[in-house]
Write a structure and sequence with these properties.
The model has no long low-confidence stretch (mean pLDDT 96). Strand 11 and strand 12 form a beta hairpin. Helix 12 packs antiparallel against helix 14, helix 12 crosses helix 18 and helix 18 runs antiparallel to helix 23. By secondary structure, this protein is an alpha/beta fold. The relative contact order is 0.10. The protein has a six-stranded parallel beta sheet with strand order 6-3-2-7-8-9, with helices on both faces. It has a four-stranded mixed beta sheet with strand order 1-5-4-13. Strands 10-14-15 form a three-stranded mixed beta sheet, with helices on one face. It is globular. 45% of the residues lie in helices and 11% in strands.
Length: 538
């Protein structure tokens, strides 16, 4: 059984293996999307394929949509070459339940895959054609938080952004420059309206996307690459809107075991690949069943019937903001960021296994959400924060079949600590004058910085997960030696006082010294991290 359009024609073999096939004509919905695209998506990795692609697949099954999604990759072109083209853009969704059962479904909703590569004229022209189509209604994004960043922590341009500003739209390289270049084509073609929908896991993601697009447009206007009318076009949210969203679905890296199980069922070539850009991806995508996508209903050129999608809620901006704050700053992500890096230091591979077997880590996780987060969270109305956290601890977090690793949860933490901890810290300062009554959150921050030393609790070295600030933070901590707490002096001060990172100076909240004390205890020697966690959670 080959995962190709031709391969799925033998329906009997797939169904015998327990794998559902599309009930719609994959070729037809793909061709329609190519001729008259309605929905484009940037960032076409795992979460997009199973969540957004899965929503589109469900809508196609129910005739809530009549064409697929146009998939655009701005960063890792290997994904197109190794995962999309060889499989005719099909994906195999593997939903993992906590009792060990699985649901298999072939997704046919991904119409075509385009490399947003200005040096590849054929692909660049194809992208221009897509963006100048008056039929286009929305462009969504899962390019991670760093995909929107134009400036470094010191407020200077990233080198690639500086080049994009100097070289103009026709030689764009970064995602924000590529997007702005395509919007300029759309503006010239007829000022057609469009919704740009960030689905990335960050606070006020629509505002962040808008800020980056407007910034690129302004810089190009200064350099005479675009005219003032274009800046007006992207600035007018009645024409180009930037809806806010909240997204939630735990999607770990592809599992080698699942690949083997699929091959044992008779499906060929299921092995995961690691691309040159360190993307872990496979022809299949494994994830949990629960999913939430709350979208601000602001679409100036119309939209698909998104509200019919599984787990999708259409709402106003304030509701989206509250739902997103509930999840990202209180219920889910802070638990991951507080305990995931510590899990690496303690030698736990799987997040769920750690919580299920280590009572102190489970206690710390529950403290972050229940004791420290829920008291200051606002109820978004459409989702209950209490019920959301209960589902996490009763169903989602303990699911060892997900195979979610602590190392994955340690990716890009420097880009997220402000959102995941800073908002709760600020809420405590507002409510009590300082945040000194917090324990699990500062413990998590100290644990993340202890993780950055790259030695586990037994003194063995490990490799850090990717993070744009790894080098900078490791340089800051280079003189700190595990087992020699006297080597720790004031190395944390520049980090903990960095308001760009935490959105607040942690020393002014009553937490700076507390985190320093916890960190000092964690570097005392072998077993010190475990002992420190035990001390503070009790």
């Amino acid at each position: 059984m080959k995962l190709t359009r031709n391969g799925i024609k033998d329906r009997e073999a797939w169904e015998k293996a327990g794998i559902l096939l599309p009930g719609y004509d994959v070729e037809k919905v793909s061709e329609k999307a190519k001729k008259e695209p309605k929905w484009v998506h940037f960032g076409i990795g795992n979460i997009f394929r199973i969540f957004i692609g899965g929503i589109a697949d469900g809508l196609l099954e129910e005739e809530g949509m009549d064409r697929g999604i146009t998939c655009v990759e701005t960063f890792d072109y290997d994904v197109v070459d190794k995962i999309y083209e060889p499989y005719d853009n099909l994906g195999l969704s593997v939903i993992l339940h906590g009792d060990g059962t699985r649901e298999y479904k072939v997704l046919g909703s991904l119409a075509e895959a385009v490399k947003a590569q200005s040096s590849n004229q054929e692909q660049w022209n194809r992208l221009k054609k897509i963006f100048t189509s008056s039929s286009l209604q929305m462009v969504s994004f899962t390019i991670t938080e760093k995909g929107y960043a134009l400036k470094k922590a010191d407020s200077t341009w990233f080198p690639f952004v500086k080049s994009d500003i100097q070289n103009g739209p026709d030689q764009a390289v970064g995602a924000m420059a590529i997007l702005t270049a395509m919007l300029y084509e759309r503006y010239k073609a007829g000022r057609y309206p469009l919704a740009l929908v960030s689905m990335d896991n960050c606070s006020q993601n629509g505002a962040r996307l808008r800020e980056s697009v407007l910034c690129m447009a302004e810089e190009w206007k200064k350099a005479d690459f675009v005219d003032a009318g274009f800046v007006d076009y992207v600035s007018d949210e009645k024409t180009v809107s930037f809806p806010w969203t909240m997204i939630d679905k735990i999607t770990p890296r592809p599992s080698e075991k699942i690949a083997q199980d699929l091959e044992n069922l008779g499906v060929e070539d299921m092995k995961p690949v690691i691309t040159g850009e360190k993307t872990y991806i496979a022809p299949f995508i494994n994830a949990e069943k629960p999913q939430y996508l709350v979208i601000e209903d602001s679409f100036p050129n119309g939209r698909p019937a998104l509200e019919k999608g599984f787990g999708v809620y259409m709402a106003d901006r304030e509701t989206v903001n509250l739902a997103e704050r509930m999840k990202v700053t209180v219920c889910l992500n802070p638990v991951h960021s507080a305990t995931g890096p510590l899990g690496v230091v303690l030698g736990y591979d799987l997040f769920a296994h750690m919580l299920n077997t280590d009572a102190d880590m489970m206690k710390m996780a529950r403290m972050v959400a229940y004791d420290e987060g829920l008291p200051v969270v606002q109820d978004p109305g459409i989702l209950s924060p209490q019920a959301f956290v209960d589902e996490l601890f009763q169903n989602r977090f303990p699911n060892e079949y997900l195979g979610d690793t602590n190392l994955r949860l340690a990716v890009d933490v420097s880009q997220m600590v402000g959102i995941r901890f800073g908002e709760t810290i600020k809420a405590y300062v507002e409510k009590y004058g300082d945040a000194s009554r917090l324990t699990a959150i500062p413990l998590g921050i100290a644990g993340w910085l202890r993780y950055m030393l790259a030695f586990d609790d037994e003194g063995k070295k490990y490799e850090l997960a990717p993070d744009p600030m790894n080098d900078e933070i490791q340089e800051q901590l280079k003189d700190v030696i595990v087992g020699h707490p006297e080597t720790f002096t004031d190395q944390l001060r520049p980090i903990l006082s960095n308001e760009r990172m935490f959105f607040i100076d942690l020393y002014q909240t009553g937490l700076g010294e507390k985190i320093e004390t916890m960190f000092r205890e964690m570097i005392a020697g072998p077993g010190a991290v475990k002992a420190t966690i035990h001390k503070y959670v009790h």
